[in-house]
Amino acid sequence: MAWEFLTVYWREMIRFVRFRTQLFASLLQPALWMAFFGVAMSSNFNRFTSAVPVPAGVFPVDYLTFMAAGVIAMTTLFTSLFGGISLLFDKNWGLMREMLASPMPRTHIMLGISLSGITKSFIQVAIIMAFGLLLGVRFFPGFSAARIALSILGIFAFVGVFSLGFLLFSSTISMRLESPEGLQGIITLLTLPLFFVSNALYPIQAFPPLLQALSIYNPLTHLVSGVRYFALGSDFFAVGARYSYTTTDVLISFGYLVVFATVMYLLARWTFQKAVVT
Fold it and tell me: In sequence order, which residues have a C-beta less than 8 Å from that of residue 230 and are 6 or more positions away?
C-alpha cells in the first residue's frame, strides 16, 4: 500500500502548528463562541422556556448544553470548508504543479489534505467539550466511564465523516478556482444557510414546512443529531421541546453522512484526475 498521503498530511500539520496566528485563532474561536454567544443566548432561552413544563421522567437540558452540540457542528463546518484553501496557495506558489507531476497518486493529495482537516476538527471538538464543561455544559449526564468513552468515540465518528465530506467538497472547489478570494466567497455563501437551516441553535419543529424539508437534507442537521445522541442521551427536553432518538435514527443520520462523503470523494477524485495546473 502506498503511503504518500501521509507526507501531505504531515506537511499540513506542520503548517498548522507553525502558523501561530492560524493556530491560536482556530483553537480560540470555539472557546469564544461558547464563552460569549453560548452564555448570553443561554440566559435568554432558559428564561423564555422556563414556563414550559418538563415531561415526567425526561432529562431537562439547559440551552448552553443544547447549543454546545451546535457549536461543535459549526466549528467543524468552518474548519472543513476552509480546509481546501491550502491547495489554492500551492497552486499560486507553483507547488501544486510539482505535486501533480510527481509519481504520487493524485488521490493522495486530497486524502492528505482531508486527513489533516479531520485531525484539526478533532482537536477543536476536544477543546469545545473541555471548555464547555468548565462553563457548565452538562454532557454525558449520569453516564458510566465506559459509556462516556464510547460516546466520545461516537461523536468523533460523526465529526470525522462529516468533516471528510466537506473537506473533499472544499478541495474540489479549490482545484477549480485560481484565487483564495473565490473560495472565501463560496464559503460565505454556503455557511449561513447550512448553519441556520439546521437544528444547531433551535428546534426545527417550528420551521416553516419548506425549511423543515430542507433541514432534513442538510448534513449539518444529521451531525448535530448524532452529537446530541451521544452527548445527551436518547431522550431529553430542551428549548421547550422533547427530543427522542432511536438507534435507527442515529444509524440513518450516520449513513446519510457516509453517502454524502462518498459522493464528495468520487467528485473530488474525478476533479483531481482531470486537473491541469499551468
Answer: 150, 151, 152, 154, 155, 158
- How buried is residue 59: exposed, middle or buried, by Cβ count under 10 Å (0-12/13-18/19+)? middle
Q: What is the three-state SS of the chain?
A: CCCHHHHHHHHHHHHHHHCHHHHHHHHHHHHHHHHHHHHHHHHHHHHHCCCCCCCCCCEECCHHHHHHHHHHHHHHHHHHHHHHHHHHHHHHHCHHHHHHHCCCCHHHHHHHHHHHHHHHHHHHHHHHHHHHHHHCCCCCCCCCHHHHHHHHHHHHHHHHHHHHHHHHHHHHHHHHCCCHHHHHHHHHHHHHHHHHCCCCCCCHHHCCHHHHHHHHCCHHHHHHHHHHHHHHCCEEEECCEEEECCHHHHHHHHHHHHHHHHHHHHHHHHHHHHCCCC
Q: Which residues of 139-149 are buried (b: 16+ CB within 10 A; e: fewer)?
A: bbeebeeeeee
pTM score, whole prediction:
0.89
pLDDT over threshold 90, residue 273 = no
In the predicted structure, residue 111 carries a pLDDT above the cut 50: yes
Length of the chain: 278
Q: What is the pLDDT of residue 23?
A: 65
What are the grid coordinates assigned to 151, written together? 460516546
Average pLDDT, the chain: 84
Alpha-carbon distance of 258 to 260, in angstroms, equals 5
Which residues, at least 6 apart from 26, have a Cβ–Cβ distance to it below 8 Å? 16, 79, 120, 124
What residues have CB less than 8 Å from 60, skipping those under 6 apart? 54, 236, 237, 238
